[in-house]
TrEMBL record:
Signal sequence region: 1-18
Keywords recorded for this protein, A-Z: Signal
Protein name: Por secretion system C-terminal sorting domain-containing protein
Classification via InterPro entries: Secre_tail (IPR026444)
Residue ranges of every copy of the Secretion system C-terminal sorting domain listed in the record: 266-330
Naturally occurring in which organism (per UniProt): Chryseobacterium taihuense
Domain of life: Bacteria
Record's keyword annotation contains DNA-binding: no
Spans annotated as Disordered: 192-211
NCBIfam families reported for this sequence: Por_Secre_tail
């Protein structure tokens, strides 16, 4: 009975930690048309594109490869879908860095938004036009700084709520956004500690928009507004709890495994002492269900890992595929 309870407990933990989306932006060229991203507004698809270099934030797993850039001189807006959430709380996060304050509105202005959730609606034209949890930006008080704000929804005399802190340009800022569907409230956390509990106090909270809560939230969007300025963006995550979008480096969290399982463990039922992998996997680790690390390795595409020395039973295998952390439970017979 104790063994069954342990297995169920670990399985529940993995399900809780499964992110809705993870995007490291390791594409090249136009973002639209790659990895599920599509243009929903603007006249020139391809304006949002990869740039060389990545953004990193202390405590998060190191980002490698490329990132993307947006500009207030462009018009293309893009989106990526995830499993629709009809209730509860939805989070997203990203590392952003203002490249300069060119095109960004003054500190006394309302500002403009560049990240948000979206809802696909068959009764609205354009069909992706219901936007929630919008991250705003405007110039800070001091030169070469910016300030971030949050708006829950549109409608009424809605105005974003800004944080009390300005951030210098060319400095990575870790944004975590929380949207409560039931209360139609958005919260913004600036530079929270990855791997920790959700801070008790947000950097800014907003519920001024009077448009009703959507029936579902199912898209993450990147917007190039006329006053958003110029930003580099990297490491975007969507999830249903704080830990999924602000995971500590080296954690066991599953990162959108359903979309990459064909590139990870191919045989979850092990009968010949060999774990087969569908792609190159870095930093392979095998854990017991109690969390004890029992084997480490790295494998090439279509290689196997011998676990003959391990006793029969259930294990958790973790690794990194295309810079994305993944995890899978296996059973050795």
């Amino acid at each position: 009975m104790k063994k069954i309870f342990t297995i169920l407990g670990v399985s529940s933990m993995l399900m809780m930690n499964a992110q809705l989306m993870y995007e490291p932006f390791n594409n090249t060229g136009s973002l639209a048309g790659q990895n599920g991203w599509a243009t929903h507004s603007g006249t020139t698809p391809g304006q949002i594109a990869s740039v060389t270099g990545s953004l990193n934030f202390t405590g998060l797993a190191a980002s490698t490869g490329n990132s993307i850039a947006i500009s207030s001189s462009n018009t293309e807006d893009v989106n990526k879908g995830f499993t629709a959430q009809t209730s509860g709380i939805v989070y997203y996060s990203a590392i952003v860095s203002a490249q300069n304050t060119t095109g960004t509105t003054a500190n006394t202005a309302t500002g403009d938004y560049f990240l948000h959730f979206g809802t696909y609606s068959t009764g609205t034209n354009p069909q992706l036009s219901l936007f929630q949890a919008r991250v705003y930006v405007k110039k800070g008080v001091a030169a070469d700084t910016v300030n971030f704000g949050i708006l829950n929804n549109s409608g009424g005399t809605a105005a974003p709520t800004y944080s009390a802190t300005d951030y210098p340009i060319n400095t990575p800022v870790f944004l975590v956004v929380k949207y409560d569907i039931a209360t139609n409230t958005a919260s913004l956390f600036l530079n929270p500690t990855p791997g920790s509990n959700e801070p008790s106090t947000a950097s800014a909270v907003n519920s001024t928009g009077t448009t009703a809560s959507p029936t579902q939230v199912d898209y993450i969007c990147i917007r190039q507004g006329s006053s958003t300025g110029n930003f580099q963006i990297d490491e975007m995550r969507v999830g249903t709890n704080f830990g999924q979008v602000a995971p500590a480096s080296g954690s066991l969290a599953v990162s959108d495994f359903n979309k990459t399982k064909s590139s990870f463990v191919k045989n979850t039922f092990i009968k010949n002492d060999e774990i087969s992998f569908g792609s190159e996997v870095k930093d392979v680790k095998v854990y017991t269900l109690s969390g004890q690390l029992v084997k480490t390795s790295s494998v090439k595409a279509n290689e196997t890992l011998n676990i003959a020395e391990l006793a029969k039973g259930n294990y958790i295998v973790t690794g990194t595929v295309n810079n994305q952390p993944v995890s899978q439970k296996i059973l050795k017979d």
